[in-house]
Amino acid sequence: AAAAAAAAEVKLRVAVYYGTQTGTSERFAREVEVELKRRYGASVRVRTSDLEHVTADTAEDVLTSGDHEPFAIFLQSTYGDGEPTDTSTDFAHWLRDLAEDGRMPDLLEDKLTYSVFGLGNSSYEHFNAAAKLVDKSLHKLGATRLMKIHLGDDDRTLEDDFQGWREALWTAMETKYGIVVGGGGGGGGAAA
User: Fold this and answer.
1) pTM summary value
2) Bridge-partner residues for 74, per DSSP?
């Protein structure tokens, strides 16, 4: 009975995906996960995953199966000359190829809402190219943007960019999904 009551309180299931090379986007993803649980308590269920586990063979099921999370957050780093990180290359290229071939333009329609935070460095020619690729491809496949892509700049104020994006994310989530700080309706909720 307690498990059923806890499941009934969940208003939003969230997946937090990260593509990292040096660990920064993983750290940011973990911060988002902790803050989601702290702010919204039992009204959200959060799963965090390295994009290396979302391969070309599993991506469609992960993003569209009956038990997938309807809201996804992508923290995508750009590496080298505008490439996705080693751990997210398979996913990013699968997503790009599927979006560009045009065979499944509505694959994610009514199935996925998302937000992308890019981690890049503006001193490089292909600033945040991997995050832009993920955002553009998800949109082309019919997914709904919760808010416009945010591009963090490691050459300037990456931490401040991340904090600003997080604050905008909370507001957008609260507006769209009706979740409130403290765990959602009815006076119950998680303490900090």
Assistant:
1) 0.89
2) 17, 116
